[in-house]
Design a protein that fits this description.
By secondary structure, the chain is an alpha/beta fold. The strands form 9 sheets. A 7-stranded mixed beta sheet has the order 31-30-28-26-32-33-34.
């Protein structure tokens, strides 16, 4: 299906040849777009200003509060506030709707665009309203990907958006650019999620595209409709790449015309001689229906392979569940769901920015064709991504078809993607055309004895499974699997937006008052970096990869996102329930020190110069979501550092830095065997950051034994150093 050349190549215009040197990077699409948005004098260290930004209701309150505390008076770029994450959560009384009221008041005061709840999921809206060739868009959500429209979009933590609101830049070294060359056309029954899962499975574990830009082109692009392209593109986040961009053609031109933005089209393709750091070749005609088993999108197999090896693969999921969820007692084996040689699924969901697009739901309706899914345990939910999509599906009768088959039609909501909607039953197995299947991402609470499972599949195979009463079925197993046309025309009616969306970009009402609910709180004060640090390990994680969801759970906990102190109570709660009390104990000692006392931990150290703090050790933290709370909650609890062998994503490392914590790298962490309660003494850390040092000599204190250890701070820019010295981004800009 996929062939990878993990070495530099040059695009000749008709194929690829080994790259002879560095010449040609300026002939890629990515280079042209980055150059147009770069404010730095050269292209080696970029300083990017974006054309537009977007946030949803988990993140925008914190971003606006950060920027406001740092001196923002209006939004300097178009900034869209959507409300698609906490619109159905009942946790916390009024706090979800209070945040929506705050968001509308902020859009009015600072000049933004406000999309009320149930109107659209964030990425569907930005595709329809903002994505266009050559643009760059920044979003506070990791799946900010609009490459199919010819745009380069990046998902980052909230502080990076706050920087743009303060007229600062997004600073990053020029990234690797990797060609994704598409040939052929998809076979009937194979959908965009299948192509995406095949790509993720081939690249993620090897780190082949980590922090790179994926550049899609080739003759196969012409065989794909816009929805199909977007369905592949949005899932590139799960490869750990930085961004993506696609060549543009008449399909893009016609789609922008449909959206009323035809004048924004421009042709875009790499030039002959373009140099790429690697090449991924995908023959679309060879891709089969796929399934990504728990607990990662890269755990991908063809459905054919899964069916041939069900018992062994499910046994591995059983073992992964015990290990990743740290269960004391193994749950019932998933192999019990194999009945008469067939695997029985409990739930299907088609939702969000990846699943809830028009083409996917049309194919699902065509497959079901009003045939009942039955009154057994299996159930199906469909979430159109936007109201215009919902209107067109309704106008053409597809909603009626799905409803007649027994599917539940929901509003435009991201809940199933982050654990706040359609939570499966304990022990249940859900197949979803959504973005992630991380542990707990479906909303279960293993600490309370609840364990359920999510596998990712394409809408077409989910519908085929529903047609078969919940028996896992690939869409290619249908007698006549539906094909996807290269163009899927439909009428676009945005009257629902015009009736409800607040369009205030460029029209700030500076006298307008912000409306604060009782849960909306300012960030607690953070202190500058002291001269020396004595850090206590508050959590040590030895998993190969640690996700953002494990650092700060999604789902109902996100209802408290606008109250930093209350939200911090949930930090690492599903991974290490003792982290919060451990961190609080260290924070209490530090407060005593600041009050002039000498805590026992500082005996032998100068309490005037040595600060106390906690740290989190993880081998590879930060995969997945861009939510800044993964770092900010640690900081609120007195966290001063992370120690890792490497960081899973740039965005998590940026969150650590922007919240004033040190992003240490340390080789051989497994051998050092750090455990909660161990301490690391780092003398002269402030002086080192004031200079340009990268190697940090420190002393590790374990069980009364001292040993030297070398920590590293590779690649810290001058501004990143100054942010950490100031204590956090807010302090840095407010000084």
């Amino acid at each position: 299906m996929i062939r990878i050349t993990n070495s530099p190549v040059t695009y000749t215009g008709a194929g690829f040849a080994p790259a002879a040197g560095s010449e040609g990077r300026d002939r890629t699409m990515a280079y042209s777009i980055l150059k147009a948005h770069n404010t730095a004098p050269d292209m080696d260290r970029l300083k990017i200003r974006f054309d537009a930004m977007a946030s949803h209701d988990i993140t925008y309150v914190g971003i606006i509060q950060t920027a406001r505390a740092s001196g923002m008076t209006e939004f300097p770029v178009p900034y869209v506030l959507t409300n698609c994450h906490n619109s159905l959560c009942a946790v916390g009384g009024t706090i979800n709707e209070d945040d929506h009221v705050f968001g509308l008041s902020a859009a009015k005061k600072y000049g933004g665009e406000f999309v009320p709840a149930h109107q659209a999921v964030i990425h569907s809206y930005m595709r329809e309203r903002y994505a266009a060739p050559g643009r760059m868009i920044l979003g506070s959500d990791s799946h900010t990907r609009y490459g199919a429209y010819g745009a380069m979009a990046i998902g980052e933590g909230g502080p990076e958006l706050a920087r743009q609101l303060l007229c600062k830049t997004y600073d990053v070294a020029y990234p690797k650019v990797i060609a994704v060359y598409l040939t052929g056309a998809p076979r009937p029954g194979t959908g965009p999620q299948d192509v995406a899962l095949a790509l993720i499975g081939a690249t993620f574990r090897q780190g082949i595209v980590k922090n790179a830009v994926l550049e899609f082109f080739g003759p196969g692009v012409a065989s794909l409709a816009m929805d199909y392209r977007s369905g592949i593109d949005v899932m590139t986040t799960e490869t750990a790449c930085l961004s993506s961009v696609w060549s543009t053609d008449d399909t893009v031109r016609e789609h922008l015309d449909l959206l009323g933005r035809g004048e924004q089209f421009k042709a875009q393709a790499p030039a002959a001689g373009a140099r790429y750091d690697a090449l991924i070749e995908i023959d679309l005609g060879t891709v089969e229906p796929m399934i990504a088993l728990p607990f990662h999108p890269s755990n991908a197999f063809t459905i054919r392979e899964f069916k041939a090896n069900m018992a062994g693969l499910l046994h591995q999921v059983d073992e992964d569940a015990v290990r990743q969820l740290e269960l004391k007692n193994p749950p019932a084996s998933l192999t019990k769901k194999i009945v008469n040689g067939q695997f029985q699924v409990d739930q299907g969901v088609i939702a969000g920015c990846s699943g809830g697009v028009y083409q996917n739901l049309v194919r699902a309706a065509e497959i079901l064709g009003r045939h009942p899914i039955g009154s057994g345990a299996f159930w199906l939910s469909c979430y159109p991504g936007s109201m215009p999509v919902m209107q067109e599906l309704t106008r053409k009768g597809y909603i009626s078809t799905l409803m007649a088959a027994g599917a539940s039609i929901r509003s435009c909501f991201c809940g199933p993607c982050f654990g706040a909607g359609d939570v499966p039953a304990n022990g249940a197995f859900s197949i979803r055309h959504s973005t992630r299947n991380f542990p707990n991402r479906e909303g279960s609470k293993p600490g309370d004895g609840q364990v359920s499972y999510v596998a990712l599949m394409d809408a077409r195979s989910i519908a085929a499974t529903a047609l078969n009463g919940g028996v896992l079925t690939g869409a290619d197993e249908l007698p006549e699997p539906p094909a996807d046309p290269a163009r899927e025309p439909y009428q676009y009616d945005d009257s629902s937006y015009r009736s409800r969306v607040y369009y205030g970009v460029g029209k700030p009402q500076k006298d307008a008052e912000l409306v604060f609910g009782p849960n909306i709180a300012d960030w607690p004060e953070q202190v500058p970096l002291p001269e020396d640090l004595l850090l206590t390990v508050a959590c040590a994680i030895y998993d190969p990869v640690t996700t953002t969801d494990e650092l700060i759970p999604s789902g109902e906990t996100s209802s408290y996102r606008s109250n930093p102190i209350r939200l911090s109570e949930f930090a690492l709660s599903r991974k290490d329930p003792q982290y919060v009390p451990r961190a609080k104990a260290v924070l209490a000692e530090e407060r005593r020190r600041r009050a002039g006392e000498v805590p026992d931990a500082l005996l032998g150290h100068d309490p005037r110069t040595t600060g106390l703090g906690s740290l989190v050790m993880a081998l590879k933290p930060g995969d997945g979501s861009a939510r800044e709370q993964a770092a900010s909650c640690q900081r609120v609890l007195g966290g001063c550092a992370n120690i890792a062998e490497e960081y899973a994503t740039k965005r998590y490392r940026s969150n650590v830095v922007n919240w004033g914590m040190l992003p240490f790298i340390c080789a051989g962490l497994k051998e050092k065997n750090l455990q909660p309660g161990d301490r690391v003494y780092i003398p002269g850390i402030r002086a080192l950051l004031e200079g340009d040092g990268e190697e940090v000599p420190a002393t590790l204190l374990q069980n009364g034994v001292e040993s030297p250890v070398t920590l590293c701070l590779p690649g810290l820019t001058r501004e990143e150093r100054d942010i950490i010295l100031a204590g956090c981004l807010i302090n840095f800009y407010a000084k």
